[in-house]
Amino acid sequence: MAEAIFLEQQLQTETRVQGFISRSHQHYIDGNWVSSVSGKSAFRGKDWRQMSPQARSTLIWRLADLMADHLEELAQLDSIDMGMPIRQAQYGTTPMAVDHMRYMAGWATKIEGETIPVSAGNFFNYTVRQPVGVVGAIIPWNFPLLMAVWKLGAALAAGCTVVLKPAEQSPLSVLRLAELVTEAGFPPGVVNVVTGYGPEAGAALVAHPGVNKVSFTGSTEVGKSIMRTAADRMARVSMELGGKSPNIICADANLKRAISGAMLGIFMNQGEVCSAGSRIYVAREIYDQALEQMGDYANRMRVGNPLDPKTQMGPVVSEEQYQRVLGYIDSARREGASLVAGGETLPEAGSGFYIKPTVFANVTDTMTISREEIFGPVVAVMPFDDLEEALERANSSEYGLAAGVWTENVRTAHYLAQNLEAGTVWINAYHIYDAAAPWGGFKQSGFGREMGHHALELYTEIKDVWINLQ
Description:
Blueprint: H1 2-22, E1 27-29, E2 32-34, H2 46-50, H3 53-69, H4 71-82, H5 86-107, E3 115-116, E4 123-131, E5 134-138, H6 144-158, E6 161-165, H7 172-184, E7 191-193, H8 198-207, E8 213-217, H9 220-231, E9 236-240, E10 246-249, H10 255-267, E11 279-283, H11 284-300, H12 319-334, E12 338-341, E13 358-361, H13 368-371, E14 378-384, H14 387-394, E15 399-400, E16 402-406, H15 410-419, E17 424-427, E18 442-443, E19 446-447, E20 460-468
Parallel strand pairs: 5-6, 5-8, 6-7, 8-9, 10-11, 10-16, 11-14, 13-14, 16-17
Antiparallel strand pairs: 1-2, 3-4, 4-20, 9-19, 12-13, 15-18
Helix pairs in contact: 1-4, 3-5, 3-7, 4-5, 4-7, 5-6, 10-11
């Protein structure tokens, strides 16, 4: 009986998803679906800004509840749209999006100022945090719903209005989210969605004089371009950009756990993760053993239809990305790296841009696959002789988003965590995220933090007030 109910629910979800996909989709502006957006469109926010914090919190929480009610549907949309394995969407990213929205709903009532004991005379001095205004949030294609919520939750809690620009490769879950915004009862204009290509719709959003702050997640190259445009009118910006994250496996590591974690670190979501651990440094005394096990692990991974619950890795998002990743594999071969596993396409998996999990050895730090962000299922595995060498090589990248360390020595763990130039360091784990923990990068991986209470700083301005008591 329970199985029959489950199958019926699955069928209903699939029917809703197919119905949603088959419809034509427009921009979501001021609570309406429209075919075009003019530069003069006003994103109303006065009612939202003046709404009580408790009322805003209630609406954000209501949206989270609706997301939870439609979790399977949202998960399928992300899986179909960009190739994310369905189990990752069902049990990872979509529940995380719900949790994040609930976490930020709680913060709406806790954004506080402070009183300051000034020495300039008989004055009462205090600060208030006020919403920065209209936020233009530009979303990447690799985690469409989750990335939208990371920006949306904090912005709404702070009292801002938001214009979301999802990636043209994977806009469906964000468009469905907009429907849930209406169902939750948000005032018109608080949440808006503008679709289109980055160089057109994204660039117009960044340049729009009505946008007070731009929050961008994507490549470092595009991030620099956005900063140049925003600088012309001093718009606030925050950036979560590229990465080339190192993963260090020490000689004393629990090797079984380290191999499993390192493979998750690079192959989760087809390697289309900004924090993917694409540079693995292994202590030389265990290097050969670890490399063999990594190759075996990669060869055993199940690649195929992302909607199949048994699939561990789906296709990359587009033909453009497919060719990009294959180009990096070819460059590694030309530059002298040794192929341990993968390196091939998988046409037998069906329609889609499938690439086998790929492991390279005999890689030097100057090779292209060691320096550039691939954003695909390709990893370079390199030996090191001592911790100082590993640390120096790990920090040699222009990026600094994340890093991993595998060791049973607490002193080693703390030493590397302290000295790695990365916004997040995982010890004996990888790809662990929580709504309460800040996320962001060092160096060319960007600035500003998403998640945690630190994210609220991106969406508020501090106003200082003086009252003369004389």
